[in-house]
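User: Predict the structure for this protein chain, please.
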Amino acid sequence: MVSAGQFAAFAALTFLMIVVPGPSVLFTISRALTVGRREALLTVAGNAVGVYLQVLAVAFGLGAVVTGSATAFTVIKLAGALYLVYLGVQAIRNRRELADAFAAEVRTTPGRTLTVLRDGLVVGFANPKSIVFLAAILPQFVDASAGSVPVQMLVLGVCLPLIALISDTVWALVAGTARTWFARSPRRLQLVGGTSGLVMIGLGTSLAFTGRKD
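Assistant: Here is the predicted structure, written as structure tokens:
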């Protein structure tokens, strides 16, 4: 099984990777400013699930496929990029409705909750930053002589969604607090909606053109 030393070393490296803001952090901040703290936190939860699905995929073979196949890497990358662009366009189109959203009573419905969780999950699972990190780094912390290699990967892989969950939650809370200042002016709200949409479109575009080093 995984030793304490293995786990601590991988956790430390994972932390260093996560503290550099990537697609998930920027997406969380945009959601917090656009639709509020609650949905940003749901996005964070969905993102953590999506990231751990990457861990499962790497543990059971996708890591080797993505690392060795430019096509597989491109498919995953473009799927996430297109989804971010779609969400960005929707944010810009609906920017004038932000004032109504602030004024209206917020009601939690299962459908809406699942939709927000899905958005976070898709962005988390399609994040090329974490899939490449997992595919390239995770296998190096596995002790093949100890057996149960997939199980070791699954245990070590818990570090990534757990640390990301904590980090992204902090970002969501900070951004959600700043949101109240924008709520005082309809023009500020439209600016937030339009800017957040542009951020997501720009993020998706940049991901689409992120290359491989091989």
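The mean pLDDT is 77.
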